[in-house]
UniProtKB/TrEMBL annotation:
Keywords: Cytoplasm, Endonuclease, Hydrolase, Manganese, Metal-binding, Nuclease. Endonuclease that specifically degrades the RNA of RNA-DNA hybrids. It is found in: Cytoplasm. It comes from Planktothrix serta PCC 8927. The gene is rnhB. This is Ribonuclease HII. One of its GO terms (molecular function) is manganese ion binding. GO terms for biological process: DNA replication, removal of RNA primer; mismatch repair. GO terms for cellular component: cytoplasm; ribonuclease H2 complex. Its EC number is 3.1.26.4.
Length: 201
């Protein structure tokens, strides 16, 4: 994990998204600002790319991150926005919304991936696979993943036929089969190929 220059007083935010490849639900981003001390503490606690952690560990670490971060905010883009703008633009919009809520505002944003956020007035740096190399991006990936998973799990009660509690909105075989059998809901992304074949419920 990358450490940041302790000699600078610039606040650095890590920014990451989750749900970009899902068929159902919003795309969600988190922006996290950590102090030097909290970076060290979270490194010891095992913070790393959220995809490499079990759900239980992710949930525990998300609570720890939120408890000790200078600030931590969520932003999202709705299914309607995904269908209107496309998933890339919706993802960048979710990231921008998360950053805009931070207080204090950071002096630099580290963005996971290779796409800069349009019209962001704060300096930004993209880092490919940043959730594997930057502790603040990894922290953001964990917070975003836990927040979105909890949202999709709550929606499972409304749409039980889609197995959302297990697939979190991603296109598993069981989810795709349910779309074929039951059609799509208002929370399915109609701009995504397999969701175009079925009428909304």
């Amino acid at each position: 994990m990358a450490e940041y220059n302790a000699l600078t007083s610039v606040l650095i935010a890590g920014v990451d998204e989750v749900g970009r490849g899902a068929l159902f639900g919003p795309v969600v981003a988190a922006a996290v600002i950590l102090s030097e001390d909290s970076i060290a503490e979270l490194t010891r606690a095992g913070v790393k790319d959220s995809k490499k952690l079990t759900p239980g560990v992710r949930s525990r670490l998300a609570r720890e991150i939120q408890a000790i971060a200078i600030d931590c905010k969520i932003g999202w883009a709705s299914v309607r926005e995904i269908d209107r703008f496309n998933i890339l633009q919706a993802t960048l919009l979710a990231m921008k919304r998360a950053i805009s809520k931070l207080n204090p505002q950071p002096g630099l944003c580290l963005i996971d991936g290779n796409q800069k956020i349009p019209q962001l007035l704060i300096p930004q740096q993209t880092i490919i696979k940043g959730d594997s190399t930057s502790i603040v991006i990894a922290a953001a990936s964990i917070v975003a993943k836990v927040w979105r998973d909890e949202l999709i799990t709550r929606l499972d009660a409304k749409y039980p036929q889609y197995d959302l509690k297990q697939n979190k909105g991603y296109g598993t075989a069981k989810h795709r089969q349910a779309i074929q059998e039951h059609g799509i809901t208002s929370q399915h992304r109609q701009s995504f190929g397999c969701c175009q074949l079925s009428l909304p419920l």
